[in-house]
Structures are given as C-alpha cells and as structure tokens.
Amino acid sequence: MMRMTALVALGAAMALWAAALAHASALDVIRDCSEDGKLNRHYTQKELSGALRKLPSDLDEYTDCRGVIRRAQLAGADRGGSKGLLGRVDTASPPTPKEQQKLDEASKSTPGRVAVGDQTVEPGSEGQPSVELPGFVLAALIGLGGLVLSGGGLAIRRRWPEQTQILLDRLGRATGPALNAIKRGISSLRR
Predict the structure, then answer these.
(1) What is the dihedral sign for C-alpha 69, 70, 75, 80?
(2) How far is 45 from 86, CA to CA, in rounded Å?
(3) Is residue 110 a part of any domain in this protein?
(4) Shared domain check, 25 and 82
(5) Domain assignment of residue 168, yes or no
(6) Residue where a domain terminates, one of 88, 113, 148
(7) Per-residue pLDDT tens digits for 18-67
(8) pLDDT at 59
(9) What is the distance between the alpha carbons of residues 44 and 26, in angstroms, rounded to a whole number?
(10) What are φ and ψ of residue 41, in 5° steps?
(11) Which residues touch 25 (CB under 8 Å, ≥6 apart)?
C-alpha cells in the first residue's frame, strides 16, 4: 500500500512538472531569445506580451529580442484564420457605402479650437504663435550674452596675447576710416 501511494505521488509530481514545462513563462521567452536571437519554441500571446514587459534593458538595447518577440506576436495573431486577430479584418472586400461615408467624414472633419495655455489655437491655421518676453527677461538675456562674449574675448586675449593684438590692430586700421566718418557726421549734426 505504501508503495502504491508513493507511485501515485510520484506520478502526480511528474504530471505537474510536465505541465509546468509545457506552459512557458515570460522569462522562458526572454531566455530563449537571448540564447541565439530567435525563438525556438511556440509561445502564447500572453507569454510574448509578458516578455515584452519584462525585457531587461540590456537585452532590449543590445539585441533584437524586442523585434523577434513582436514578430512572433504578429505571426501568432495571423495564425488561425478567422480566429486570429488579423483574420477578423476583411481586407479583400472594399468598404461598404456606410463605412466609406464614415471614413470620408472622419478625414474631412477638423477639430474645433484648442485651448493652449491662455490662448486658443485652431488646427490647420497658418501663422506662428507669438511669444512675448517680459522686458527684464530680454534685458537679462542680452546682458548675459554680452558677459559671455566679453569673457570669451578676455580668455582669448590671455591665451594668445600676440595674435590678439595683431588682430585688434588690423581691425582698428580697417574700421578706423568708418569710425572717423561717423564722428564727422555726429559733429556736423551738432552744429
């Protein structure tokens, strides 16, 4: 009797173990793909979806496992004729007049005005939204730009003093006549 009970318990354990092997998990899908970059078994849509959710970032980044699993999902959706997800869509016959009318209405309809912040925007209208900066922000940005340019100029002058002086002399000779003309024009206006 004891022997019979042990055999029944062993048989039940073996059946449970075989059932567990038959029903793979999302981790089995990930392991299968990570071994050689392809799925060597057939998995359910639930297992494939779970694998996509649990796919480690390193496998996602450095392998094509996400693409392999998605292709297996699509192949599984196409399987089974009318029972599969893609089998439910009738692509052979054109849309009925009622369906075509709904498609036309959906493609021609435009949504109304949309509130964005304190302004309303109408989709499809031309023109750029105007952005007005407060005066103090504009002045701060201009001042910051001036500081960056002057700091950069000082850094360049310290790094290459001889080349900077040559450049300034050339600029002075080039802009000297223009500056003198501006001075004469201002002087003539003062009279």
Answers:
(1) positive
(2) 13
(3) no
(4) yes
(5) yes
(6) 88
(7) 555 555 688 888 999 888 888 888 888 888 888 888 989 888 888 888 88
(8) 86
(9) 10
(10) -125, 170
(11) 47, 50
Domain that holds residue 11: 2-88
Residue type, 61: E
pTM above 0.70, yes or no: no
DSSP per residue over the chain, as a string? -HHHHHHHHHHHHHHHHHHHHHS--HHHHHHHHHHHSS--S---HHHHHHHHHH--HHHHHHSSHHHHHHHHHHHHHHTTGGGSTGGGS--SSPPPHHHHHHHHHHHH-----EEETTEEE-TT--SPPP----HHHHHHHHHHHHHHHHHHHHHHHHHSHHHHHHHHHHHHHHHHHHHHHHHHHHHHHH-
pLDDT digits (tens, 9 = 90+) for 147-159: 999 999 888 888 9
As a whole number, the mean pLDDT across the chain is 77
pLDDT greater than 70 at residue 84: no
